[in-house]
Write a structure and sequence with these properties.
It is built from 19 helices and ten strands. It is elongated, with a radius of gyration of 36 Å. The chain has two domains: 2-338, ABC transporter type 1, transmembrane domain (ABC transporter transmembrane region fold, Up-down Bundle); 356-585, P-loop containing nucleotide triphosphate hydrolases (Rossmann fold, 3-Layer(aba) Sandwich), CATH 3.40.50.300. The two termini are 70 Å apart. Strand 4 and strand 5 form a beta hairpin. The strands form two sheets. Strands 6-7-8-3-9-10 form a six-stranded mixed beta sheet, with helices on both faces. Strands 2-1-4-5 form a four-stranded antiparallel beta sheet, covered by helices on one side. By secondary structure, it is α/β, with parallel strands linked by helices. The model has no long low-confidence stretch (mean pLDDT 79). The longest helix has 50 residues, at 71-120. Bound molecules: adenosine-5'-triphosphate and magnesium ion.
Length: 586
Amino acid sequence: MNKIFELISYLNKNTKRKLIFIFLVIFVNSLFEFMTIGAMVPFISFVSNPDKISEIELLKRTSDFFNIQQTNELFLFISCAFLITIFLSGFIKIFSLKIINDFSATLKIELGKKLYKEILYRDFEYHLNTNSSQLISSQIQQLDSSLSVISQFMLLSLSVLSILGITISLFIIDYRIVFFIIALSSLFYVIASISTKKYSIIYGKIIFETRKTIIRIVQESLGFIRQIILDDSHEFFIKEYDKNNIQNSLAETKSATIAQIPRYLMESLILSVLVISIMFMYFSAFDFNNYLTKIGAFILGLQKLLPLFQKTFTNIYSIRQEKLSISSVVQLLKETKKYNKNSRDKLVKIFQLKNNIKFQNISFSYKENRVLENINFQIKRGEVIGIVGKTGTGKSTFIDILLGLIKPSSGNIYIDGNKMDSNLFRRFRLSVSSVPQDYFLLDRTIEENIVFGKSASKIDYYLLNKVVNIAMLQDLINSLRNGLKTFVGENGINLSGGQKQRLAIARALYKEHSLLILDEATSSVDSETEKNILENIINNNPGITILMIAHRLQTLKNCDYILEIKNKKLIKYQNISQYKSKSEKK
Ligand SMILES: Nc1ncnc2c1ncn2[C@@H]1O[C@H](COP(=O)(O)OP(=O)(O)OP(=O)(O)O)[C@@H](O)[C@H]1O
Ligand SMILES: [Mg+2]
């Protein structure tokens, strides 16, 4: 129960106000419950013994007030008032259900976005250290069930207060039981379940589909987080998520409302049948006995009480069941609060490299494992640098430090003399195109994968064509029936390793920025094609700075100089032949 209130405390002020309104409506609802049962007594006693009505204070005053002389007139008046109360009560119940269900949708939209945004904006190191996608997607999925607890809680209040209203009424009257109404209810429910089947299928499908898409978006984006941070394209995924989430929530709301309407229609129906048949009997001079009064009230009362008790039970049951998922969501929301989000929403201006990037005494360790030690080094604008080193020596790590994806354990990085902080890194990354060693392809078309992160309506086809040519993708695309619109499959499963790599290169080039990083970007491409791609890149981007990691030395033939990472240090060579002869000597 505490957790529920804790979860509520994370809502916007507006949403909290809605919550108070809902509880007011729930209270009014229970008043109506009380009145419907209570009104049964004067109504039936009137029928069974019209002469005694003068003994009922309330009726006497009413007839005086409206100046009603004739008994029949008074009876008609009372019947109408009773019917109106019944329908109002039914309406209020449907209304409170609707606002409770709508409220859950609001909750889901509000908290869902908050949580997803929180997770996606975490920095790269958080994702490195967490088995993130599984943990987090399960937390997002739990959001659903934990939020359902809040609506369960409100429904529970609705049931309990209604039970209270009805019981008080019955307590005042007395008690007995009659069963014919149960037969009527079952018939009604059969009809109701047939007529709502259509909706449950339609909405069920929407809910199912959007939930699948939501999980896919979440998992894809988390697998893609490095590129998202580099491109600063968080909003792209957030928008897609939000769209599906809204569809999903609305379908759920509607379906939940429809599923519960029959119950309340049923109640209004039964009561009307009762009232109308009693009216009929009255006018046909049927002989009533005294006991009918009480039985009538109790038919009504029990008919209302039984399902309410049932609901109270299931509500409590599901609240208990969801205890764990609610805790995990509350936990994540707690973290949102303490997490600094100053730099998130500001539009960042690109920081272009003008002169140089300096590494000053940079050391880095993954926990216990020291990878780089005391690196001092400078990259000048326009240089083409090759980086070599045995596998696992820290080449990719070096790049990640350069991009600010991971923070060095000690030392500083300067760009054009400015010391790097997280904000400057974010701006700097916008000027970097990178083909990481473990790039990720979206399960969308070739075109979408290349222009990823930029809005689809603004595709620059001239540039697209250019990068396709530079990355030597033209032949592939010409050979495909759907060309650029061909789907690549999950993480490019439909493409070969070399094709995927060239696609990743085209994506990096489409960004058209001044620093290009190629981490084993051509390792799966044959040497001839590789040579052409590299020459294309250099010829088409005069003045571009390139950092190129490769195991195949031939790849680095055109580099201005070579850096070797060895024993946690950087060693510089004039060119690839100097590196070759030096390493052969050893
Ligand atoms: N997330 C991580 N957590 C802990 N250790 C890591 C992590 N990533 C890499 N390492 C370790 O850091 C070292 C350097 O890894 P890195 O990926 O930089 O090597 P690399 O030179 O790029 O190798 P390769 O040529 O195979 O790509 C390796 O020993 C690796 O095991
Ligand atoms: Mg590597």
